[in-house]
Design brief:
Layout: E1 2-7, E2 10-18, E3 23-30, E4 41-42, E5 46-47, H1 49-58, H2 68-75, H3 80-85, E6 96-100, H4 107-110, H5 120-126, E7 150-155, E8 158-163, H6 172-186, E9 196-200, E10 203-209, E11 216-220, H7 221-225, H8 236-247, H9 252-265, E12 277-281, E13 287-290, H10 322-327, H11 343-351, H12 359-384
Antiparallel strand pairs: 1-2, 1-6, 2-3, 4-5, 7-8, 8-10, 9-10, 11-12, 12-13
Helix pairs in contact: 6-11, 11-12
């Protein structure tokens, strides 16, 4: 099969595709490389078939997603890339898609930003229904990332992502609300994606609006980091900021530092390179800036027993030690510490809404929040003495 990789209605490149192995076999022609996704380019050689294949596979649902194996068995498919093929590779995080070479279909006909879509695929992945031949699986859920159950849903004409929690205590949705309460106190509104709680079928989920509009794309930090070679003496933190500078991403250090501090306070243990990044305007090709903070549910010892709350863990993305990562931040002039007063009371109120969390667990988390806030305040005062 011959396909065209598109950015809205701009033809980026033509390629040959093996529908049995679900891989790109050849890049036949490059028309507009300047509009190509960052992920299909190697810093030495530009656009390559290998990078295109990796980027394409990365768009599919990860194998670690809860219930994915069961859904693929029900649908009699062997790779989540097959699901991606069924929706032209469309996403609600960017405007890239593929179409057959002779097809006359246009962006306006198929994109999920402007057209309705089925919730069937999301319900399958959430375990809310079983597969049958009559289901409509044309959905942005075929290109969603992450391990927890989730689905896209149109709420009051807004594209929103609903996400569940673990089966132990369903804590992650409540963590997202705790994080939002923190961000509301100490960050600017543009610095974060706001999350709310929603109930469906007697379960709580977190819900947030999509962070990009029809002219913007979210670019994962993973691709930004790979945009240039890492110098031997550069730390992961320094290298990432250098990569941002090379791409002209504005205010990267300040925004990354804000993320590090917030992640420290809520003990985020999964801030990997695919759940932060930057936003680029796909029309002007100029960078808007670091993406607002999102996906903070994997925090506050959500999957650990109550007895382990407060224990150390390997953090991400720049240091394994939470204390060492916090030390990367050498300017806290942006932080108004008075805004953190009594935050632990707000945390307690949120967690008391969760019927699967008992008082002992809630109080253990509240105490850890207080300790972490005290350490951030101490760090700010230490920096002010320099």
């Amino acid at each position: 099969m011959n396909y065209i990789l598109m950015s809205k209605d701009i033809e980026i490149l033509k390629f040959s595709y093996d529908s049995e192995t679900h891989t790109v076999t050849k890049i036949d022609r490059v028309m507009h490389p300047e509009y190509a996704p960052l992920g299909v380019m190697e810093y030495k050689t530009g656009i390559t078939r290998k990078a295109l294949n990796n980027w394409w596979k990365d768009r599919s649902i990860p194998a670690s997603r809860s219930r994915l194996k069961e859904v693929m068995a029900e649908m009699d498919i062997h790779s989540s890339v097959e699901l991606l093929e069924r929706c032209f590779g469309l996403s609600l995080s960017d405007q890239y898609w593929i179409k057959e070479e002779r097809s006359e279909i246009e962006w306006k006909d198929v994109n999920f930003f402007e057209n309705d879509f089925s919730e069937d695929m999301g319900k399958l992945l959430m375990g809310q229904m079983n597969y049958s031949d009559g289901l409509n699986v044309f959905s942005p859920d075929n290109s969603s990332d992450g391990n927890l159950k989730k689905k896209w849903k149109i709420i009051n004409h807004i594209r929103c992502l609903m996400k569940g929690g673990n089966s132990f205590n369903n804590q992650e949705p409540f963590n997202e609300l705790v994080a939002t309460k923190l961000y509301e106190r100490i960050l600017d509104q543009r610095d974060y994606v706001p999350y709310e709680l929603i109930q469906e079928n007697d379960l709580y989920y977190s819900v947030c609006p999509t962070m990009v509009n029809t002219d913007e794309e979210l670019v994962a930090a993973y691709y930004i980091d790979r945009a240039m070679k890492q110098r031997g003496n550069d730390s992961l933190y320094t290298h990432f900021l250098e990569a941002c500078r090379s791409l002209n991403i504005p205010n990267a250090k300040l925004q990354i530092d804000k993320m590090i501090v917030c992640d420290y306070i809520i003990a985020n243990y999964d801030r990997h390179y695919r759940n932060f990044g930057a936003i680029r305007n796909i029309v002007t090709l100029k960078w808007v800036g670091i993406a607002p903070i999102f996906d903070s549910g994997s925090s506050l010892w959500a999957i650990q027993p109550t007895s382990a709350i407060g224990s150390t863990y390997n953090c991400k993305p720049f240091k394994a030690s939470t204390e060492e990562q916090l030390k990367l931040v050498n300017d806290l002039s942006w932080l108004d510490i008075t805004r953190l007063e009594s935050f632990e009371d707000e945390v307690e109120t949120v967690f008391k809404m969760n019927p699967l969390m008992d008082e002992v667990r809630i109080q253990a988390i509240v105490q850890q929040i207080k300790l972490r806030i005290d350490k951030v305040i101490a760090r700010k005062r230490q920096l002010e003495k320099r």
